[in-house]
UniProtKB/TrEMBL annotation:
Single GO cellular component term: membrane
Top-level taxon of the source organism: Eukaryota
Chief location of this protein within or outside the cell: membrane
Any one Gene Ontology molecular-function term assigned to this protein's record: monocarboxylic acid transmembrane transporter activity
SUPFAM superfamilies, per database record: MFS general substrate transporter (SSF103473)
Region called Disordered, residue ranges: 225-260
InterPro entries per record: MFS, MFS_dom, MFS_trans_sf, Proton-linked_MCT
Name the UniProt record assigns to this protein: MOT14 protein
The Major facilitator superfamily (MFS) profile domain, residue ranges: 37-502
Membrane topology note: Multi-pass membrane protein
Residues annotated as transmembrane: 33-55, 75-95, 102-120, 126-148, 160-180, 192-210, 321-341, 361-379, 386-405, 411-434, 446-466, 478-496
Amino acid sequence: MYASREDIGYDFGDDSKVRSKPIKPNPNIDGGWAWMIVLSSFLVHILIMGSQMALGVLNMEWLEEFNQSRGLTAWVSSLSMGITLIVGPFIGLFISMCGCRTTAIIGGILNALGWILSAYASNVHYLFLTFGVTAGIGSGMVYLPAVVMVGQYFQKRRALAQGLSTTGTGFGAFLMTALLKYLCTELGWRNAMFIQGAISLNLCVCGALMRPLSPKDLHEKYAVRSDSEENQAKAPSHSTETIKSNGVLGEEPEKKEEAANEEVLGSVQHIEIGGKSGSGRSMYGLRLFKTVSQLTVTVRKGFALWYSSYFGAASLFTNRVFVAFVIWALFAYSSFVIPFIHLPEIVKQYNLSRQDNVFPLTSIIAIVHIFGKVILGIISDLPCISTWNVFLMANFTLVTCILTLPLMQTYVGLAVVCGLIGFSSGYFSLMPVVTEDLVGTKHLANAYGIIICANGISALFGPPFAGWIYDITQKYDFSFYIAGLLYMVGIIFLLIQPCIQKKQPRGKSTEEAQV
């Protein structure tokens, strides 16, 4: 199912030298500190994605406080969710320059600041800036590193590791819904947001746990992965090869950048050696100059990798299956977000508040979502199972539930559909795995940044659209039907593109042509 190297048009060098050497696996790959990375990512998902899934509680408080339309008020939640994901490509640039740890710590501070400033909101438009933009950007700066680090530290059990870490979304939705309800009832929504801002500072601790792997360790992982791909015959969809770090993607710009960078550092070292006999003040100036030069080299190298991934001759967008994946992401996420934001209103509309107070429907989604991610991750890691097929089946189940949810007007019926939504949406844990299979670990940050950016656009416009439809029709039915149909269009793109590529005869690679 995935695009092969020949399909994408990349040229790959000979890996025989790498494969011929005995490779001593790093104990931190698939074990050791890798599980601390899973714990860190798990807590990030609780504090960021879990909190965003519980925004339906605050949405009702804002409706009562500011007396604005549902469509306008829903923009606050949508901006926060959307911007968290939309900034993905730019966060990829930060990661290339500063690394995951620094990016996540800065993001934790920004996220906490956004929550605290929102406690002093005087109108909805103030919340757009503080909660939607400030907290949203901070969330994005923590979320993407949390996903990328798990992908770097795991090879054999990637789907399970991503599944365990992303179960934090389900736990967080359950815990944060209960916490925000309690705080809003006892202390009011303003104090609730202030306290939540203080809790969000723990994101800085999560970022500090993201210890980067050395380039040598990453190189060993690529080599181990290439061996496992040759020796392991999984499903047909896994028979194609992934893009590795020794590919042409970003190689030519990197070579030019490395030459320029070496020239800069060489000139600095030459000046430093020549100035050793000088005064202490001149030595201090040389050290400062060297530090600035090294920082400049790091920034240039990171920007070159980021630029080549998006705009280079062999950019990610030359992978046709990846492009279809991006189109799917544009329609998919809103179908999952809309129920979380508007379910409290639907329950109120059907006079089911008494039953929902006993066991909220959003909590049902959150709890089953936890099991869905773990179970789908375990199934996808089985040797005889295709991750791609599991991913597609979960998507079909979710879109069916979205289309049937408006037909359910009893608590039991809604609870059953919400349970299926929670389980099938567990495919979110497979998204980084599918992305890494398409582009390789080295380009995972930039590629997954594009995917979550598309998801962010979907989340940004989905809930306000549902609120706008309600303001016109006084029903949410059409919102779910339209969202479900658009979601189905995205799934069709995923099905059509691999079939087209399968029918096309594959030409010889550049290496074969030269021989």
